[in-house]
Amino acid sequence: MSDLIVSTVAQGLLWSVMAIGLYLTFRTLLIADLSVEGTFPLGAAVAAVLLDEKHSPATAIFAAGIAGMLAGAVTGLLHTKLKIPALLAGILTMIALYSVNLRVMGKANLSLLNTDTVYTSLAFLNLSPNMTTFVVGLIIAVLIPVLLYMFFGTEIGMALRATGNNPQMIRAMGVNTDNMLLLGLVISNGLVAVAGAFIAQNNGFADVGMGVGTIVIGLASVIIGEVLFGSKSVKNSLISVVLGSIVYRIVIAVVLYLGMPPNDLKLFTAILVAIALSLPLFKAKWDSRKVGVKCYE
Amino acid sequence: MLRNLRQKKMIALAVGAILTMGVFAGCGGEKKEAGSEKAKVYQIGVLQMVQHGALDDSNKGFVDGLASKGYKDGANIKIDQQNAQGDQSNLKTISQRFVNNKVDLIFAIATPAAQIVANETRTIPIVGAAIVDYKTAKLVQSNEKPGGNVTGTTNYNPPKRQIDLALKLFPNAKTVGALYTSSELNAQLQVKAMKEYAAEKGLTVIEATVSNVNDIQQAAQSLLGKADFIYCPTDNNLASAMSNVAKITVPAKMPVFVGDETMVKTGGTAGISVNFYKLGFQAGEMAADILSGKSKTADMPIGSQAEVKVIINKEAAKAIGLIIPEELMKEAK
Fold first, then answer.
1. A252 CB near a chain B CB, below 8 Å?
2. Does A207 touch chain B (CB under 8 A)?
3. From which residue to which does the signal peptide run (chain B) (predicted)?
4. Which chain A residue lies closest to B93 (C-alpha atoms)?
5. Any idea where the domains of chain A sit in the sequence?
6. What tens digit of pLDDT does each residue of B234-254 get?
């Protein structure tokens, strides 16, 4: 039983990197970036090919991040230079990446069973596979938010956040908002590709179909995190996203455990996200009612 | 502070939910111990990648294969049926559930499903089906002697058979069009083998790939007038949309040769078929031998279908004006 908790939380930690990438575009730049459904398997594909050729896991993950950044730049350029709406630009990159991913791997599915990965490199710790995943997940789920938090504290990071918040104001201060959007998409997709690299190594294969449904997983994690754990400040938000990702995995594990037909899982996810999105409204109503009661007393 | 309190409550709730599950699981466990004077009930996890005809057939065959050797669901085995609906992050969750429930055997249908469980456990025996090439997927060391905890049956159907059949019916054919899904390793491997054989026979190959069912009509259209006949491998996407292909090929009098019985029934012209139900049945028999301790996965060679049969869709053949030789008619069904 405890093993199931460890493995579920470990999955949540691994997926949180992708959720943070989505948080960056969805919450700070206010665009829903669909290119992640292509960059996620792109990161997986690049990492898998390099690992298959006996390169070190560090090289593979680094290369995956670079590839993701390039893909993000494509979306950014389509959006800022060619003035294609963000949603469409993301979709275009996503479908283009399908072909790119096939080219990268040379086939639809590349197995990593019995290949050295970031997880096997921790063999000296003598942990169970689930614990190893947990340790790796913990490291990246702490390291990446911390780095991002530090970045948000810099002048460029502030400008990036302001771009989503108040574009007029930041333009008046002489910041080029287009460049900020481009930068945001580059970082976001780099993170998503890195997440893809970690997940593929954990699954034991990279597959071109890996990206299907990732945007929903990421957005659900972001929203559940915000609703349950708040979004008062940047620090608070980043922690919320990581926790939201873990809660999402726990919820899925629980419903499967309780015997929900897997066919209904997608419907359930949609309902879950809808509820999470509407909770603040209900909360506001509830609070105002409580205040009203107090007045009459 | 209040905010923190709420957060703590939420975390407590989540943890509480898990613990409650643990209690339920615990109850289940106790029940088993109570019935320990009865024979052991084996737990079997079935993980199917996605829902469609051929994979459903494998699944049904597996359950029947187990039953044929005396392992009946609900009596001496308990089968936990799970389907990932094509979402690979579900595969992981489900396979972890199997490993944590300490099932005695896992049946994995389709390549990614088998890869994910093989990565999750090195000890629980895994039997696969609807997997073309176990070695390329790194599931086994070799097909004759797997050497690990994975074995199963392969639906590999040498494309040579389809090409030979096509050449028997169309001796003057010069060009073959390959129609398949670019994202399926199984389909790619078959087309690669087909191209090698076609080269031997002096045929030119034109490829048309699709990424999902929506591209199929256009891809089929692109082969009209260029190819003398179309070859389709056993491919999940095309299996679900063969009638779509027929819409394009039948009016154009273009014959389509396939490698799966259901694909002939739904619009293919003819094919040499493997039968997914039978392959699933065979996997079920293998699983029974593993459960009874008769054999070990490491030494069980990957099974394949021994007898294949020619299947001709007589209506489709008539519609494209194809005259089938008497001898073929006899062996076909």
1. yes
2. yes
3. 1-25
4. A253
5. 1-288
6. 887 888 788 888 888 988 999
- Name the CATH superfamily for B159-274+309-331: Response regulator (3.40.50.2300)
pLDDT value, residue B4: 59
Choose the CATH number for B42-155+275-306 among 3.40.50.2300, 3.40.50.12780, 3.40.630.30, 3.60.120.10. Answer: 3.40.50.2300
Token pair, residue A216, equals: 């929903």
Biggest CA-to-CA distance, chain A: 74
Nearest CA in chain B to A130: B120
pLDDT tens-digit map of B38-55 = 578 999 999 998 887 889
The alpha carbon of residue B280 is apart from the nearest alpha carbon of chain A, in Å, by 21
pLDDT at A109: 87
Query: What percent of chain A has a predicted confidence (pLDDT) above 70?
Result: 97
Q: Is A8 on the interface with B (CB under 8 A)?
A: yes
Phi, then psi, of B138 in degrees rounded to 5: 55, 35
Q: Given CB atoms, is B120 within the 8 Å cutoff of chain A? A: yes
> Is residue A258 packed enough to be buried (19+ CB in 10 Å), middle (13-18) or exposed (0-12)?
exposed
Q: Report the residue of B119, B135, B212, B235 to disrupt the A interface, i.e. the one with the largest count of A CBs within 10 Å.
A: B119
Confidence of residue A277 (pLDDT cuts 50, 70, 90): confident
Q: State the fold for domain A1-288.
A: ABC transporter involved in vitamin B12 uptake, BtuC (1.10.3470)
Give A14's Cβ-side CA count (13 Å radius).
28
The pLDDT of B156-180, averaged and rounded, is 92
Q: Do B129 and B152 form a contact (C-beta atoms < 8 A)? A: yes
Whether the CB-CB separation of B66 and B46 falls below 8 Å is answered with no
